[in-house]
C-alpha cells in the first residue's frame, strides 16, 4: 500500500452562521466567526490517495490526473468564492472546515475509486494553526 498526496490552495470567504438562529445565538456559539461581515481564509487542501503501484507505469495514479480532478471538482468551484453562498456542494451546510472536508471527500471519492485507487484522506488547513483531517464515513 502506498500513499500519494496532491496539495492545492484556495482562497474563500465565509462566516459561521446558521440561518435558523438569531444573530445573538450565532455569536454565542461561533463568536467573531459569526460576524455578518464575511471574512476569508487562504486554505490549504491535501488530497491523499492510497493503493498499489502499477508495476508497468510505476504510478499509483498519475499526479497530473489527481491535480486535474482536484482542480475541476473542488478548487475551481470554491477558489475566490463565498462558501456560504456560491458553492453547490456546500449548499445547506454550515461553512466549517469539518463540513468542507466531508463535502470535498464526497465530491472526489467515487471519481478516485473509478481509477482503481482509494481516497485515503482530505486534510484542510483553514489557518496556519487550525486544520481538519477526514478519513471517510
Ligand atoms: N471546529 C471549528 N472551529 C472553528 C472553525 C471551524 O471551521 N471548525 N472555524 C473558525 C473560523 O473560521 C475562524 O476564522 C478561525 O479563526 P481563529 O480561531 O481566529 O484561528 P487563527 O488560527 O487565526 O487563530 P490564532 O489565535 O491566531 O491561532 C473558528 N472555529
Ligand atoms: Zn473563518
TrEMBL record:
Superkingdom of this entry's organism? Bacteria
The pathway that the record names for this protein is:
Purine metabolism; 7-cyano-7-deazaguanine biosynthesis
Protein family membership: Belongs to the PTPS family. QueD subfamily.
Report the active site residues: 33, 80, 126
Q: Which cofactor does it need?
A: Zn(2+)
Per the UniProt record, the source organism is: Pedobacter africanus
The EC number(s) this enzyme carries: 4.-.-.-
Record-linked Pfam families: PTPS
Which terms in the Gene Ontology molecular function aspect does this entry carry?
6-carboxytetrahydropterin synthase activity; metal ion binding
Please name the Gene3D superfamilies in this protein's record: 6-pyruvoyl tetrahydropterin synthase/QueD (3.30.479.10)
Instruction: Please write the reaction equations for the catalytic activity of this protein.
Output: 7,8-dihydroneopterin 3'-triphosphate + H2O = 6-carboxy-5,6,7,8-tetrahydropterin + triphosphate + acetaldehyde + 2 H(+)
Keywords, ordered alphabetically:
Lyase, Metal-binding, Queuosine biosynthesis, Zinc
User: What is the recorded name of this protein?
Assistant: 6-carboxy-5,6,7,8-tetrahydropterin synthase
Chain residues that bind Zn(2+): 14, 39, 41
Its BP terms in the Gene Ontology are: tRNA queuosine(34) biosynthetic process
What is the cofactor note? Answer: Binds 1 zinc ion per subunit.
Main EC class of this protein? lyase
Amino acid at each position: 500500500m502506498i500513499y500519494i498526496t496532491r496539495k492545492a490552495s484556495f482562497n474563500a470567504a465565509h462566516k459561521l452562521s446558521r440561518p435558523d438562529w438569531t444573530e445573538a445565538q450565532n455569536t454565542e456559539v461561533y463568536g467573531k466567526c459569526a460576524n455578518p461581515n464575511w471574512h476569508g481564509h487562504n486554505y490549504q487542501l491535501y488530497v491523499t490517495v492510497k493503493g498499489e503501484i502499477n508495476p508497468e507505469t510505476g504510478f499509483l495514479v498519475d499526479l497530473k490526473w489527481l491535480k486535474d480532478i482536484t482542480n475541476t471538482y473542488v478548487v475551481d468551484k470554491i477558489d475566490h468564492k463565498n462558501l456560504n453562498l456560491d458553492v453547490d456542494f456546500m449548499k445547506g451546510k454550515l461553512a466549517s472546515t469539518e463540513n468542507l472536508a466531508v463535502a470535498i471527500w464526497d465530491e472526489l471519492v467515487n471519481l478516485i475509486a473509478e481509477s482503481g485507487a482509494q481516497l485515503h484522506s482530505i486534510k484542510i488547513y483553514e489557518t496556519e494553526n487550525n486544520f481538519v483531517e477526514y478519513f471517510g464515513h
